[in-house]
Amino acid sequence: xxxxxxxxxxxxxxxxxxxxxxxxxxxxxxxxxxxxxxxxxxxxxxxxxxxxxxxxxxxxxxxxxxxxxxxxxxxxxxxxxxxxxxxxxxxxxxxxxxxxxxxxxxxxxxxxxxxxxxxxxxxxxxxxxxxxxxxxxxxxxxxxxxxxxxxxxxxxxxxxxxxxxxxxxxxxxxxxxxxxxxxxxxxxxxxxxxxxxxxxxxxxxxxxxxxxxxxxxxxxxxxxxxxxxxxxxxxxxxxxxxxxxxxxxxxxxx
Length: 254
Ligand code: PGA
Prior knowledge:
Elements: E1 5-9, H1 16-30, E2 37-41, H2 47-54, E3 60-63, H3 80-85, E4 90-93, H4 96-101, H5 106-118, E5 122-127, H6 131-135, H7 139-154, E6 162-166, H8 180-195, H9 199-204, E7 207-210, H10 215-222, E8 229-232, H11 239-252
Helix pairs in contact: 1-2, 1-11, 5-7, 7-8, 10-11
The structure holds 2-phosphoglycolic acid.
């Protein structure tokens, strides 16, 4: 049984005041979450504040990106060891917004996964197809290609130390969620792809769903056999909504 992971991707949102409130509310509600692992990924400037607010709670901390390098002359970059020192357990790698807007390709994503692992962080590797790709019938080609690229560059062992998030690009921030059956189909496809290289790794890898997951659709999604959690954007900015999704994770894991 894979423990559900419910991770909030706050993206580039928040002020000191709103983040302080959100953290306090998540921590207050997290005591009632029994089976799901809960994590939040705030923007970099709020990490220290978040680490302090989460200390002593069960809520884990993550970042949204990291450099391929561990230190040095890389203006504007943030290194994995810094994130680890500031209390991060997780780091999101290869989010579709970074792939689309900041030119992150599979080779760069593989380097970032290695940098995360070297720093002792668990990466959440995001994969997913665009609407155009899905409508062309290329979903398996695109998602399989993103998975295969990492296996080819880093070996199947890379998946032993990361989480996967399937995030159909057409469902992110659009209010359009993949149906539970659509999501399950892709999650099973990803797991089969991993199983072709290592059955034990495929069986233990958590595959999260992301893309307009909210309190009202979380239980149905999280009840699918190959959906092991959620990477939550918009709904993670409202503590009650985020916690309701974590509760749904609890129910699904019963
Ligand atoms: P969303 O974002 O929940 O707002 O669709 C998910 C994500 O991009 O991780």
